[in-house]
C-alpha cells in the first residue's frame, strides 16, 4: 500500500510539473520577444539573438529560443549588410537543433523553409532549381502539420510570388495563399492577449503579397 501511494504521488508530481511553466524562462522570453519587435540596427539584432541563445543554453528542452534566434539570423539577411550565407548557415544549425527538441513542429518546419528561401534569394539563377522544391516541400509539410499556422501559408505565398515573377507567370496562386494567410492571422490575433511568446510575426509580409495583387 505504501509503495502504491508513493507511485501515485510521483505520478501526480510528474503531471503537475508537465503543466508548469518556469517563471524565469517565461519572463526572459517575454523580454526578448518584446525587444525583438523594436530592433532597428544590426547590433540590436545580434544582442537579442545572443539573448535567445543564452536562454536556449539554459533551457535546452525548449524549442522557442532556438527558433527565434534562427528567425533573427534569417531576417538579418534581408534587413542588414551581413555575410548572408554565413548567417543562413548559422540559422540552419539552430533550426536543426530546434527540430530535435520539437519533432514535426509546424513553426520550426516553416522556419527551415524560410532559411532555404533566404539561400535562394542570394542567387536565384543558380540556386532556385535545386532548392525551390525543398522549400515548397517544407512549407507544404508545415501547412499539413498545422492548418491554422498563418506563417506557413504566408511563406508559401511569398515563394509562389517569387517563382511567378521569375518565370513570368501570373500572381493568382500567391494572391490566394496570401489572402488565406491573412484570414488565419485575424484568427490568431483574436486569440492572442498579453505577453504572448509563441510566434505571431509575418502579417505585414502577407499584406505585401496581397497588395501586389490589387
UniProtKB/TrEMBL annotation:
Keywords: Signal. InterPro entries: TPR-like_helical_dom_sf. Residues 1-20 form the signal peptide. It comes from the Bacteria. Gene3D superfamilies: Tetratricopeptide repeat domain (1.25.40.10). This is Tetratricopeptide repeat protein. It comes from Algoriphagus aestuariicola.
Amino acid at each position: 500500500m505504501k509503495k502504491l501511494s508513493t507511485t501515485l504521488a510521483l505520478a501526480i508530481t510528474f503531471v503537475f510539473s508537465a503543466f508548469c511553466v518556469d517563471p524565469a524562462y517565461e519572463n526572459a522570453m517575454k523580454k526578448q520577444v518584446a525587444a525583438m519587435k523594436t530592433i532597428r540596427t544590426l547590433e540590436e539584432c545580434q544582442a537579442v539573438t545572443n539573448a535567445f541563445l543564452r536562454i536556449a543554453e539554459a533551457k535546452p528542452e525548449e524549442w522557442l529560443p532556438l527558433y527565434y534566434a534562427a528567425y533573427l539570423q534569417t531576417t538579418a539577411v534581408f534587413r542588414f549588410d551581413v555575410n548572408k550565407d554565413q548567417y543562413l548557415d548559422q540559422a540552419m544549425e539552430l533550426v536543426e537543433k530546434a527540430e530535435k527538441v520539437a519533432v514535426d513542429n509546424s513553426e520550426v518546419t516553416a522556419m527551415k523553409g524560410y532559411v532555404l528561401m533566404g539561400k535562394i534569394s542570394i542567387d536565384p539563377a543558380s540556386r532556385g532549381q535545386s532548392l525551390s522544391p525543398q522549400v515548397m516541400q517544407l512549407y507544404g509539410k508545415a501547412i499539413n502539420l498545422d492548418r491554422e499556422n498563418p506563417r506557413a501559408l504566408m511563406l508559401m505565398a511569398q515563394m509562389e510570388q517569387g517563382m511567378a515573377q521569375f518565370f513570368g507567370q501570373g500572381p493568382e496562386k500567391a494572391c490566394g495563399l496570401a489572402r488565406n494567410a491573412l484570414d488565419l492571422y485575424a484568427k490568431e490575433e483574436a486569440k492572442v492577449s498579453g505577453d504572448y511568446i509563441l510566434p505571431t510575426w509575418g502579417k505585414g509580409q502577407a499584406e505585401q503579397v496581397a497588395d501586389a495583387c490589387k
